[in-house]
Amino acid sequence: MEPVRFGVMGTARIALEKVIPAMQASSHCRIAAIASRDRARAEAAAERLGIPRSFGSYEALLEDPEIEAVYNPLPNHLHVPLSIAAAEAGKHVLCEKPIALSAEEAMRLVEARERTGVKIQEAFMVRCHPQWIRARELVQNGAIGTLRVVQGSFSYMNRDPANVRNQADIGGGGVYDIGCYPIVGSRFLFAAEPIRVASQIEHDPSFATDRLASVLMEFPTGQALFFCSTQLVPYQCMQILGSDGRIEIEIPFNAPPDRPCRIFVDDGSALGGGSVRAEVFDPVNQYTLQGDLFAGAIRNGTPLPFPLEDSVRNMKVLDAVFRAGRSGRFEPV
Questions:
Q1: Strand partners for 236
Q2: Where are the beta strands (DSSP E) in 135-209?
Q3: Are 61 and 93 in contact, with CB atoms under 8 Å apart?
């Protein structure tokens, strides 16, 4: 398969340190150009990463006829407008999460896709990782009985006022940045949509962003709950509890590409780890796998495994989380 030629919009840290190197390691993706509103930043990134071309504007990147697809890791408020601009330029779009700031905004991307015929994918790389695929397989095969509870935690420490995650007016805050992961993970495991949501949200008095959130989601056959924070000790874990057993994903979201990952399967017959068995997964880069799947869908003309409609449904849950945080009661999804 001929590699898909990608252009990168912006010089976000996740792009420079994780996604671009991972996609460069793929035989199905080629990073052909990078753009920034600061041309010097684009040139420096191109030189550092061995990218052939650089541009001083996003518009110039989109005008390049050699670029077939773009990767959009820009701040959250630019996901929809720049992804629409890319689609209208005839480029396929792989856009960072959250793909929008509301479900209503995400629908604009669905309309752009229908109008232009390009493929648009939200970059939830975790759904490409073998540990998540295996965990869902175990749930669906009844290995832990009936799935009843999904419990997650995700936190880090970031008090930098210049960081985009701490800027409320451009879509900062912990729920958008990391709370979206346990939401999409819970939906992935239940293979269903939550009915209603309750949440408790604490805001930073200086940044006005959500810095600590606890969320409860009611699914048709169980519950999911998680907390996320931008001002706590770095930590992450997912627990998947059924009627006859449980699964723990040790490093669910930032799975390391250079060492094995583990999930733990427990039949509950002995406390303290006595009934736990580990399943170990060889090192893989989930960003490379994500790029491979997206490029394959472009080249082969096949449907994306998670279409934009799934992104709209995830945004509906995020919308409900924020409504519940304001109302102090359960909000329907």
A1: 154
A2: 147-157, 196-203
A3: no
Three-state DSSP at 1 gives coil
- Specify whether the CB–CB gap between 93 and 72 falls below 8 A: yes
76: nearest Cα among 162, 210, 10, 172: 172
Q: What digits encode the pLDDT tens for the residues 13-49? A: 999 999 999 999 999 999 999 999 999 999 999 999 9
State the Cα torsion 157-158-159-161 to the nearest 10°. Answer: -170
Token pair belonging to 193: 């949509």
Whole-number Å distance between alpha carbons of 301 and 117: 11
Of 69, 34, 73, nearest to 55 by C-alpha is: 34
Paired tokens of 14: 């996740």
Cα gap 320→329, rounded to integer Å: 10
Q: Which residue has the tokens 């999804």?
A: 333
User: And the tokens for 161?
Assistant: 């006022």
Catalytic residue among 18, 97, 119, 316: 97
Which residue spans within 53-205 are E strands per DSSP? 53-55, 69-72, 92-95, 120-122, 147-157, 196-203
* Euclidean distance between CA atoms 162 and 165, whole angstroms: 9
d(CA 215, CA 218): 10
Residues 37-96: tens digit of each pLDDT: 999 999 999 999 999 999 999 999 999 999 999 999 999 999 999 999 999 999 999 999
Residues forming beta bridges with residue 265, ordered by sequence position:
247, 277
Tokens representing residue 160 in the block: 């930098």
Biggest alpha carbon–alpha carbon distance for the chain: 62
Could you read off the pLDDT of 187-242 as tens digits, one per residue? 999 999 999 999 999 999 999 999 999 999 999 999 999 999 999 999 999 999 99
State how beta strands 210-219 and 222-229 pair.
antiparallel
Catalytic annotation present for 97:
yes
CA 122 – CA 232 distance, rounded (Å): 27
| Domains annotated on the chain, with CATH | 4-123 (3.40.50.720), 127-284+315-332 (3.30.360.10)
